[in-house]
Design goal:
mainly alpha, 5 helices, 65% helix, globular
Length: 93
């Protein structure tokens, strides 16, 4: 077996499968875009983090995670819920 083929084979064994939900690039891009929009809205909003969490029906920790950039702790649906809580008249992202 040539070195090139051996290296490619070894990489296939060590790399996680591309279909893994954790590696869905489109989902990650969507969540990061929503996170940026929401953090800007929170910055200009009169609502505090506790009030946003209460109105959205989410634990305060989720809002803290959002503001800390911890995307892995929030789903797209939770991010949309927070968005609608802050800006109910705006178009859904």
């Amino acid at each position: 077996m040539s070195t090139a083929r051996h290296t490619a084979y070894a990489a296939e064994l060590t790399d996680p499968p591309r279909s893994s939900p954790d590696l869905d690039v489109r989902d990650l891009e969507k969540r990061s875009r929503l996170m940026r929009i929401i953090t800007r809205l929170i910055a200009v909003s009169d609502l505090g983090s506790k009030d946003i969490a209460r109105r959205a029906g989410l634990p305060m920790q989720k809002i803290s995670d959002l503001l800390s950039g911890k995307l892995e702790h929030l789903s797209v649906d939770e991010l949309r819920l927070v968005y609608r809580t802050i800006d109910p008249s705006g178009p859904p992202p």
